[in-house]
Amino acid sequence: MKYKILFFLCFIFTFCAVRAQQTEKLYLSGTGNDDTVNWDFFCTEGMNAGKLTTIPVPSNWELQGFGKYNYGFNKEANKGKEQGLYQYEFKVPATWKDKKVNIVFEGAMTDTEVKVNGKSAGEIHQGSFYVFKYDITKLVTFNGDNLLEVKVSKHSANQSVNEAERKADFWIFGGIFRPVFLESLPQSHINRVQIDAKANGVFTANVFSSGEADKINVLLTDANGKKLGNEFSTKITSASTQINQQFRNPALWSSEFPNLYTATFSLIRNGKTIHQLSKKIGFRTIEVKERDGVYVNGVKMKFKGVNRHSFYPASGRTTSKKISVADVLLMKEMNMNAVRMSHYPPDGHFLDVCDSLGLYVMDELAGWHGTYDTPTGTKLYTEMMANDENHPSIVFWANGNEGGHNRELDHLFTENDLQKRPLIHPWEVFNGFETTHYREFNYGIGNYDHGHNILMPTEFLHGMWDGGHGAGIEDYWNAMWNNPLSAGGFLWDFADQAVVRTDKNGELDTDGNHGPDGIVGPYHEKEGSFYTIKEVWSPVFVEKREMTAGFDGSFLLENRYAFTNLNQCKFEWKLKKLNAGAEAVFKAGEADAPNIKPLEKGKLKINLPADWRSFDALYLTIKDFSGKELFTWSFPIALPKDDAEKIVVKTGSSKVSLKESATAYEVSANGINLTFDKLTGLLKLAQNAKGIIPFSNGPVLQESVNNFRNFKTKMDGDQLVITSTFDKKESYNTLEWTVYPSGWLKMQVKYFPSEYFTTFVGLNFSYPQTEIKSVEYKGNGPYRVWKNRMKGTQFGIWKKDYNDSATGEPAWQYPEFKGYYSNLYWCEFIGKTQNFKVVTDREDVFLRLFTPKKSKDTEYDNMSPTFPTGDISFMNGISAIGTKTQKPETTGPMGMKHVFYDFDKEPGRALDMTLYFDFSTK
């Protein structure tokens, strides 16, 4: 194999970037899915088996058209057992002669056998997600080409590895999926450092070195290169040297202020630096107080976390620094402060980004229902710790997941972690923590809500399609925030696990309902729950308030930060006049940031202009100290009745005419022809000069009965009124139509739900889905809502084109069109042949647009029923949605059915739905 040009580029770049006394790296592969190097490759089974070809490294071979795609739940007989045979020729710099040379694999799936120049580099490595290395000093030549041969078996010869990693609820891939590089070390060198930097400035390190040296110098510098204290030295007396130092007033690390220092360790012999090793560190203290909580730097924490796979659709588990940055930025945008590694250690660059941008991390030794045997688990634990232990972002260790806990490994975490971070068994009551997954909201047995352990579910609100995550989180978070034993929790999970199927023309595959569990889509498309979480988890809580005439610009705030005073934030306001089809007219300003300390309440005062009530809405945007938006809250000023008074035209020059037949009322006014069923009162036809508008067959009551009876007509001035007769026993629901000379039509329905508990209540009309092009409406948007997911929207005028998207399915087109929309003022339906407008003067009306296509649920069918009959609905109450593991009613009070009580059928206590219809050609 010819020496690769890319190798030379990596070689030159690396040697320009390092000094001789530092560890030198030379990549044989690329560094991620956006930077790869082709190696010779041969796959034994599946796609393209038996062909000698090339493959990018790093990669998962399925995504390159080799082997078989397997989801972990697949039966053993269907699982790919293929092997990949890799070859690559490389050169070793002549300057590395007389140095120690290691070859380092950051991750390979799964059993990995390595040969250099035909000789074994060491024992076969078993385990997919761990950095491992071989000393190949005696195997390489410095004056010519070297041949690297790697055999990777997708499934392990060690059954415990398969039980822990391969029989899991996630995609199973094969290949060298993380980078491979050579490293050069002086004969005397630093092997490893363990660092503990406490919030009080106490710095402790264990330095493990090889060879001859006199002392170790340590220097700490901040991000600007400024020294923290002075460089200090410690004599070397053995292969392990402990260093202790006290620093004054270091800048502390937290998710809010991720202050990092670089600790540079220099190995000194005869006054000369012979090797240097640098680590990014953060001063912070993690403390668990039994029956109390988790404290970071002395402050009790609520973890707002999510579970995250190392995953990208087009490259499987091969990611990149760019992807890590994007993932963390999205989590931070949702106001999260924590992430759990599910269910294995991540790429090193992901932890680097969590350190630099600020996320608390739970790092996890693999084990999903199955466990590593003790010898294998001990080896893999050691590899995980050697690479991850110094990251300040890591505040928890997890030993496996959901029963995948080898308890014989527990003592290793306690004995070998210099920082003594807490150990978690996800899905268990263990070590003072109750982490049980997917508990129902009202669950209160034993050690959970009424117990004494620290509550921190490592998975809750299991998303699937549009269920979970945002649905129920407000109820859960209110309970978590107010429970002193709660330390928060971790949602399942971050992104839909949809993989590109190279064997199916690039189709994105979630393995049915196993993979579409994300808050965002596979390529980070934002779903409605993204914004719900962003609002619910805002570190500044804005108390609800109405824009009454007496509003003085004051908002009550709660500072839910742990370390940030709200005077470090920015508060912007905007008043808008909302006009259909036009840009909003606005006034804007900035309010003085209030001095509200962490975990305290206070008041924000906005000095609004005198004419503020002439606007339609007030918007309040709060940004953190870095300028990142926490959320924008919207507050309607004008009410639906105010809009209705301006929009609805009642007067006109024409007269209202009525023709009665045996079955119908036929009404005409100002070029509008309307037909009502004489027996039921339902609208049967609406027609203008252009023709028939296909909106009809309503109102049909939902969760109630259409017992409108004994209709009568009368002229009320120049208006025609068609009204049913109230009877407490037979026709207690009433319908009244009013036709104005302008051609506008008013409908008023007063009704009583049939049941004490109802899934939804409202009224339906027929409108063919094939007719709709788009809608423009005034209300909350642009995302749909559920009864238990009302937050995350914004009040305004929204134009939405029709789509048939279903959450979690191709083509991941958001926002979805079909669904419920809250706080309706008016809506214009834009059809292929005719448009019409509906206006309401009532508050809290929901608009329902058609029924989304039903995705395949689990056997529990938790996501349905969710929608009423008919096509277009105007609702007083809408349905909730469940999660993958819970019915809607078990996600909290907001997920429960509506309760309406009025057995006496008194008209004054009926639900009231009033709508106005404009069927004109304007």
Give the tags:
922 residues; mainly beta; Jelly Rolls; TIM Barrel; Immunoglobulin-like; 5 domains; six-stranded antiparallel beta sheet; elongated; beta-galactosidase; GH-type_carb-bd; beta-galactosidase activity; calcium; signal
Task: Describe the structure concisely for a colleague.
It holds the Pfam family Glyco_hydro_2_N. This protein is mainly β and 922 residues long. Helix content is 10%, strand content 36%.
Q: What is the CATH T-level topology of the largest domain? A: TIM Barrel
The CA-CA distance between the termini, in Å, is 74 Å
Global outline: elongated
Uncertain spans, ≥5 residues at pLDDT below 50?
1-20
Question: How many strands appear in the DSSP assignment?
Answer: 63
- Averaging pLDDT over every residue, what do you get? 94
CATH homologous superfamily descriptor of the largest domain = Glycosidases
Rg (C-alpha, Å): 33 Å
Strand content: 35-45%
State the share of residues found in helices, binned by percent.
Answer: 10-25%
DSSP summary: helix tally: 9
Give the strand order, joined by hyphens, for the main sheet.
49-50-51-52-63-59-58-55-56
**What is the CATH first-level class name of the largest domain?**
Alpha Beta
The CATH architecture classification of the largest domain is Alpha-Beta Barrel
Largest sheet: 9 strands, antiparallel
Structural class: mainly beta
Domain unit count: 5
